[in-house]
């Protein structure tokens, strides 16, 4: 396989870290960018970067527009805001980039109710900046993160890419829907390939501390109650991080249908799990019961997610391999080691 130089945005994030690591293992060159914001514990972000060979004292420096931290010959890191209209275009001008994988975004459904401006800056202005850079730099393919949240509270399961997604119920979901529309416009106008990936509830080692897996584990270990919304009557298509990354890498590196420049794919496990069963798996892995605080439905939340992955299976032979029992066990092992 020909060696590529790939820009990965959000390289210190959960999925971005794994994608960068996999690309390096496959022999490709990675230019990683991340603003390392304080939405959650920055120590975790720096620890992920350390796994990629980038030490904290290097990564935390505010670098100028054309400089970067080099690790050997194949990994570079630049601390940068995605929405920086001077630094990002300059990066494209000063580095020979073949492909772009945009995984940087302000994440979190509930946080979008508290700080909507953060979502406008990163998910809208930032994504437009990426599209403009791809356009002016002749990038042939952009793979970017969308979300299962675009399906809203749809009862038509499993969720298919052809479904109407005009009714998001959180600002986060609305920004992801907007990303898809923006990508469609740029593919149509400027003739480069855009692939949107609708991720379904990603979990696993190195996961974000604001996600259910971390919150539940921490609470159970410390004898604190866990918040169980909608009285537990929720289900999620929990998808293990390595299965997600296999789909990202395939869409990024493998040839695709050249007759269509704009594409969308679900990436999920296609095996929804009830929230209470998910909690039970964590309890068993910890050998400790949870104290459950049963609560009503949370604003912006959806009752169920369920991915139809036929399309990505057909095009890229995508096949999730990790069930929730194994995935939870892997996470708990990592959690105990990382948090001591």
TrEMBL record:
Which Gene3D superfamilies does the record associate with it? NAD(P)-binding Rossmann-like Domain (3.40.50.720), UDP-galactose 4-epimerase, domain 1 (3.90.25.10)
Q: Does the keyword Signal apply?
A: no
Q: Which positions fall inside the NAD-dependent epimerase/dehydratase domain?
A: 6-268
Q: Note one Pfam family from the annotation.
A: Epimerase
The source's superkingdom equals: Bacteria
Q: Which InterPro entries match?
A: Epimerase_deHydtase, NAD(P)-bd_dom_sf
Provide the alphabetized UniProt keywords.
NAD
Keyword NADP applies:
no
Give TM segment ranges. none
Q: What are the coiled-coil residue ranges?
A: none
Alphabetized PANTHER family for the sequence: EPIMERASE-RELATED
What is the protein's given name? Answer: NAD-dependent epimerase/dehydratase family protein
The organism is: Formosa undariae
